[in-house]
TrEMBL record:
Record keywords: Hydrolase
MF terms (GO), sorted A to Z: hydrolase activity
Family annotation (PANTHER family): DIENELACTONE HYDROLASE DOMAIN-CONTAINING PROTEIN, DIENELACTONE HYDROLASE DOMAIN-CONTAINING PROTEIN-RELATED
EC numbers: 3.1.-.-
UniProt-recorded name of the protein: Dienelactone hydrolase family protein
Keyword Hydrolase appears in the UniProt entry: yes
């Protein structure tokens, strides 16, 4: 396991002081970077550990904040903040751009090689960055089959991977169909993984507070979804860029 370093970063967004978690891989060179968005409850140790895991794979990773350093364990309070946010693309983009600016200005980040990965509300933020025309190498989401304003998904210029539980009542088949129809009409390179038997937030370990109906942890699918995210990054945002074949690699004797 490589040695990583982490630090807390504060930055303004949505009228709040956000408190993100930045994880850096070993070394001093520039690396590809991942903007990591949390579920609607907000940034927790779950996302911090995922950022650390990405840093161990060689990425600069910023787990961004949604609620000004707060974790909203009360479902009513969470919905009261997240539902208006999800209905306001400009607010979502503002939160995403503020975090993206922090990630881009980190000296270890290669600013031309950034992906967005997000869960729930954090995934919706990543999609809105793409719909807003931000140059990303990939967008990966779980539980975030949000649709955008007409025509804006045509601005997405990178592959989009989305995961959802088959039994997720918050993202039912009609929502899946609307999302994939939007991606297809926009000419996006998209994929949808449906995890059989899984509920909403199936990737998130159990929490010690009430949750909205339809939420449930599915450890096997949680591991699969994480592997799918890592595979997306390996494909679209490799830690080491492929510089092509070594011209001397296949030279025969005497060359």
């Amino acid at each position: 396991m490589t040695t990583i370093t982490t630090r807390t970063v504060e930055y303004p967004a949505d009228g709040l002081t956000m408190i993100g978690h930045l994880a850096l891989p070993a070394g001093v060179d520039r690396r590809p970077a991942v903007l990591l968005g949390p579920e609607g409850m907000g940034l927790s140790d779950v996302e911090r550990r995922r950022a650390d895991a990405l840093a161990e794979l060689g990425y600069v990773a910023l787990a961004f904040d949604l609620h000004g350093g707060r974790y909203l364990g009360d479902p009513e309070e969470m919905l009261a903040r997240c539902l208006p946010l999800l209905a306001d693309p400009e607010r979502m983009r503002g939160i995403g751009h503020a975090a993206l600016d922090v990630l881009r200005t980190e000296p270890r980040t290669d600013p031309d090689r950034i992906a967005a990965v997000g869960y729930g509300t954090g995934g919706a933020v990543g999609l809105e960055l793409g719909r807003g025309g931000v140059s990303l190498r990939a967008i990966g989401t779980v539980n975030a089959l949000t649709t955008g304003r007409p025509g804006e998904s045509a601005r997405i210029r990178c592959p989009v991977w989305a995961g959802v539980g088959s039994e997720d009542p918050i993202m039912p088949p009609a929502q899946r169909n609307a999302f994939t129809a939007e991606m297809q009409a926009a000419g996006v390179d998209w994929r949808l993984a449906v995890y059989g038997g899984a509920l909403h937030a199936f990737h998130h370990p159990p929490v010690g507070h009430p949750v909205v109906p339809g939420v449930g942890y599915h450890p096997r699918h949680a591991q699969r979804a994480w592997r799918d995210v890592v595979d997306l990054l390996a494909e679209c945002l490799p830690v080491t860029e492929d510089l092509g074949p070594d011209p001397g690699k296949h030279a025969g004797p005497g060359h």
